[in-house]
Amino acid sequence: MSGYFVRDALLLRPLEPEDLDQLYRWENDTRLWENGSTVTPFSKFALRQYLQDARQDIYQVRQLRMMIVDKGSNRAAGTIDLYDFDPLNGRAGIGILVDEDFRRRGYGLQALSCMEDYAFNHLKLHQLYAFVPAGNKASRALFEKAKYEKSAVLKDWVTVSREFVDVIVMQKIKK
């Protein structure tokens, strides 16, 4: 993906080596782990390697992570990912993290819109899906606002605070 994807207040750009410290902070924030699949901290070395590999083609590595950047301050506001990219079946998972300093300002919805444009119009995907822990009301509200539909509930799918919780599968199918 070349260039930038721009919306009102933000742009999406590829990861850069300068993002190392910010990624290190987000990836090692244990409060965020329950919304993903992280169970151990990341070293700066491992993240540096990840940044080097992130430049590879989505068709090779089956994932793409972009930085969400606030246009006004040029600060990193979060990340958005396509993962489990499956070009044969025209689908990919999508995940998003918006930094606490930038929440409730529409960045999540704008970032989803940018990534959807890329996924549906450039990659020619048929659908995107997200796995949302049932208790993550903010994430669920974001995907609902972006017109993702609840398609399934995976019972006792992940552990949060040592308890099994359901995960809601949300899908957006290109019309």
Mean pLDDT: 85
Strand arrangement across the biggest beta sheet? 1-2-3-4-5-6-8-7
The name CATH uses for the topology of the domain at 5-126 is Aminopeptidase
Summing up helix and strand content along with how strands pair, one would put the structural category as alpha+beta
Low-confidence parts, pLDDT < 50 over ≥5 residues? none
The CATH architecture name of the domain at 5-126 reads 3-Layer(aba) Sandwich
- So what's the CATH class of the domain at 5-126? Alpha Beta
Q: CATH homologous superfamily of the domain at 5-126, by name?
A: Gcn5-related N-acetyltransferase (GNAT)
Domain N-acetyltransferase: 10-175
Organism: Petrimonas mucosa
Pfam families: Acetyltransf_3
Protein name: Putative N-acetyltransferase p20
Offer a few descriptive terms.
about 180 residues; alpha+beta; Aminopeptidase; 6 helices; about 30% helix; Acyl_CoA_acyltransferase; GNAT_dom; transferase
